[in-house]
Amino acid sequence: MATKAELETVPGVSQPDPATKDFIFQQTMYRIKDPKKSLDFYTRTIGFRLIEKLDFPDSKFTLYFLGYHKAKDIPEDRKERVNWMFQQPATLELTHNWGTESDPEAKMHNGNDKPQGYGHIGFHVPDVDKACARFEELGVEFVKKPDAGNMKGLAFIKDPDGYWIEILNGKNSTRLV
């Protein structure tokens, strides 16, 4: 296992350029088939709040931005809210191309099927077993349950489009080292 100092010597790793000191990881984008199903999953099941919805009628798509933010922190004024939203770390952008919800041929590639590429997003939860019991009650599809496989104590579930979501507790991650 690498020490903190050794992490800085991994081939290809550079010290962050001072010009990037104010950069944030702002969003991950998923294309979705049916916004009703996806919004229900990410708000009710995962606990995100819808921060903003942007419609683009000329291009026939809608963007939904979600995150873990308190309602009181989200600006009321639309322009202020959009500006604020694009400065928040770790939001999820759901992109809906109009008509896919009724197109039986529309299918999203989850990145885990062949050819592999993108893998998953992950959520820290206070108690993996309790979260997974709740997901099971809600009918969420599992890729891996907490006690299955070689990596115990974490789970993978699927969203309505088949994207994988890792469910973990950071305190349990020490088992990996």
Structural features, described:
By secondary structure, the protein is an alpha/beta fold. Helix content is 19%, strand content 25%. It is built from 4 helices and 8 strands; from the N terminus they run αβαββαββαβββ. The protein has helices at residues 4-7, 35-45, 78-85, 128-137; strands at 27-32, 49-56, 61-67, 91-97, 120-124, 142-144, 155-158, 164-168. The strands form 2 sheets. The protein has a 4-stranded mixed sheet with strand order 1-4-3-2, sandwiched between helices. Strands 5-8-7-6 form a 4-stranded mixed sheet, covered by helices on one side. The longest helix is centred in the N-terminal third of the chain and has 11 residues, at 35-45. The model has no long low-confidence stretch (mean pLDDT 94).
Euclidean distance between termini CA atoms: 7 Å
Structural class: alpha/beta
Could you list the spans in which at least 5 consecutive residues all have pLDDT below 50? none
Q: Mean pLDDT, rounded to whole units?
A: 94
Rg, Å, rounded: 19 Å
**Overall 3D form:** globular
Quick overview of this protein structure:
Helix content is 19%, strand content 25%.
Features of the shown structure:
177 residues; alpha/beta; 4-stranded mixed beta sheet; 25% strand; globular
Set down the secondary structure blueprint.
Blueprint: H1 4-7, E1 27-32, H2 35-45, E2 49-56, E3 61-67, H3 78-85, E4 91-97, E5 120-124, H4 128-137, E6 142-144, E7 155-158, E8 164-168
Parallel strand pairs: 1-4, 5-8
Antiparallel strand pairs: 2-3, 3-4, 6-7, 7-8
